[in-house]
Amino acid sequence: VHAGEKVEIWPGAMGSKNWSPLSFDPNTGLAYANTLNFGMNYKETTPVYRAGLSYWGADISWVWPDGPRGSLKALDPMTGKAKWSAPSDIPRFSGVLSTAGGVVFTGKLTGEFEAFDADTGRKLWQFQTGSGIEGQPVTWQQDGVQYVAVSSGIGGVYAIFSGDERLAGVPAGGSLWVFALAR
User: Fold this and answer.
1) Residue partners of 26: CB distance under 8 A and separation at least 6
2) Which of 38, 77, 138, 183 would you call most buried, defined as having the most Cβ atoms within 10 angstroms of its Cβ?
3) What CATH number does residue 172 fall under?
4) Arithmetic mean of pLDDT over the chain
5) Which residues pair with residue 103 across a beta bridge?
6) How far is residue 153's CA from residue 146's CA, in Å, rounded to a whole number?
7) What is the phi/psi pair of residue 65, to 5°?
8) What's the total number of domains in the chain?
9) pTM for the whole thing?
10) Which residues touch 79 (CB under 8 Å, ≥6 apart)?
């Protein structure tokens, strides 16, 4: 690589596993993680500082694959191999929650809060929250009932910088959603 030369990098600066928390299930022995599938073009430039604006010291642009831009994956941490994968047209930036009942929860930037079978990856349920999900699902038990909660409200690096036209109509939102699980 030479100074000033444009280079295509895979994965891009956001990595292939995003920074949101994954979840490990001791019952299945699997780690459940949202992954990213896109690269970036990178060309070194002289940074120009402008108050209030971010700068990278580089001219960057995203490189999109022909297929899915991300996946929820069930990974065997001992081998690094995926047991199953649930592809997504838009990368997932939500954290992942796995439960002792064999259900994995995560969200999408388009607002869907989803539940998957921990063993097979089959989608069991989804709910449209009305705004993008980047928060971390949590669970607790109260009076014998298990609850799962997640916040929604679009934002973050991908939503702001990607230029992904599919997010243009997603309301900014700002809600907390709580669900009681069936016994």
Assistant:
1) none
2) 38
3) 2.130.10.10
4) 88
5) 117
6) 24
7) -75, 165
8) 1
9) 0.86
10) none
125 occurs within a structural domain? yes
Please give the span between the terminal C-alpha atoms of the chain, in angstroms, as a whole number.
58
CB 11 within 8 A of CB 36: yes
Interacting residues of 109 by C-beta distance below 8 A, sequence separation 6+: 90, 91, 92, 93, 132, 133, 134, 154, 156, 158, 159, 167, 170
What one-letter code names the amino acid at 141?
Answer: Q
Tell me, yes or no, whether 122 lies in a domain: yes
pLDDT tens, residue by residue, 20-53: 899 999 999 999 999 988 888 888 887 778 888 7
| Angle in degrees, CA 78, 83, 88, rounded to 5 | 120
Query: For 2-57, where are the E strands, in sequence order?
Result: 7-9, 23-25, 30-36, 39-44
**Nearest 5 degrees, angle CA 75-CA 108-CA 111?**
155
What is the structure's pLDDT at 157? 63
Domain range for 135 = 18-36+69-180
- Domain presence at residue 46: no
